[in-house]
Design goal:
The protein is of the alpha+beta class. It has 15 helices and five strands. It has a five-stranded mixed β-sheet with strand order 3-4-2-1-5, with helices on both faces. This is Nucleotidyltransferase domain-containing protein.
């Protein structure tokens, strides 16, 4: 456990003591949950309460000079053993949480079930099947988008397929769920794959990506409403992510993270509009800026390349998982 992890843990415990409602369970995720928090870390916590008057809430707060990303849920939304066995892929984050409050040690039991199942042969096989299905859906979506002349949507689907496969490869090789570890894992374990990957956007250097995302968020805040994701505090969170990766001398990772932020904000504000239509409504200058961090339409060759790289990762995972059977 890093020294910063201990500091943030004490901070969040004080925050929870001041929470105005009775808390049944509380967990921390991200770098605090993993125990590798650093100077760039925030506090990402989920609390579960029995109060029926409380709706699902997402709030960003500054507390004792630390940024807290808070999700408040009802106890009925607590993960169950059934959830873990039904979809271990979506339950994998349970393996990287720090439990802060645990009525009757129920969450500790759930976490242990997740740890046991997700490292078992059956759990790994089920995860692989889940991700393969997701990947196949996105590959089909990319091809269909191409046929309709929707290059931006094709790019998003093709890159989404690769990312899902890459997260699975990361999990089965490095036992990590951290986004920041995806590209280092691929670069370390599959260097030839990485070399092919970085010939495509958004896996390239962009020296102004953070300020571009900030400009993009400001535009959406002005014209698309006041969604939680548009809060200015998210700009600081982006800056922290970028600073961490810049210290690690990983500019390609910075650009990929910022591209991910752009796509997340699209989903948060588009209200079902296609990405191509969404981009078409952006000012030309902003559209040009976003292109420098990877928001560009794909052609057939680029989609095929990403599809091949995605297939490589899935095959690698199958080999690893079969060894554990």
């Amino acid at each position: 456990m890093s020294g910063k992890t201990g500091v943030l843990r004490q901070t969040v415990l004080r925050f929870l003591e001041e929470w105005p409602y009775s808390i049944n369970y509380a967990t921390a995720g991200g770098s605090l949950g993993r125990g590798d928090a650093d100077a760039f870390s925030d506090i990402d916590i989920t609390i579960y309460c029995e109060d029926n008057l409380l709706e699902e809430t997402h709030v960003n707060k500054v507390y004792e000079d630390e940024i807290i990303q808070l999700t408040c849920l009802h106890t009925r939304d607590l993960p169950s053993e059934h959830d873990i066995y039904q979809s271990p892929w979506h339950a994998r984050f349970l393996t990287e949480i720090l439990i802060l409050k645990d009525t009757e040690e129920r969450f500790s039991h759930i976490k242990q079930v997740a740890l046991d199942h997700l490292t078992s042969a059956n759990g790994l096989l089920t995860m692989t099947q889940e991700v393969t299905a997701i990947v196949n859906q996105r590959v089909v979506a990319a091809r269909q988008a191409l046929k309709r002349g929707m290059g931006y949507s094709a790019a998003m689907s093709a890159l989404g397929a690769w990312a899902e496969a890459a997260f699975l490869y990361l999990y089965v090789t490095w036992q990590s769920c951290a986004t920041q570890h995806v590209l280092p894992c691929i670069r370390t374990e599959l260097n030839a794959h990485y070399t092919s990957l970085i010939e495509n956007p958004p896996f390239q250097r962009s020296y102004d990506s953070v300020s571009i995302v900030k400009k993009y968020r400001a535009f959406l805040r002005k014209y698309k409403g006041d969604a939680h994701s548009l809060a200015p505090l998210h700009d600081e969170l982006c800056e922290r992510k970028a600073q961490r990766l810049q210290e690690q001398q990983d500019p390609v990772n910075v650009t990929w993270h910022m591209y991910g932020e752009v796509i997340w904000l699209y989903f948060e504000t588009s209200k079902g509009t296609s990405l191509d239509s969404f981009v078409g409504e952006l000012p030309l200058e902003l559209k040009h800026d976003l292109a420098t961090i990877g928001l560009t339409p794909f052609r057939e060759k680029q989609v095929e390349t990403l599809e091949q790289l995605t297939e490589q990762l899935i095959k690698k995972v199958h080999i690893i998982v079969n060894r554990t059977s």
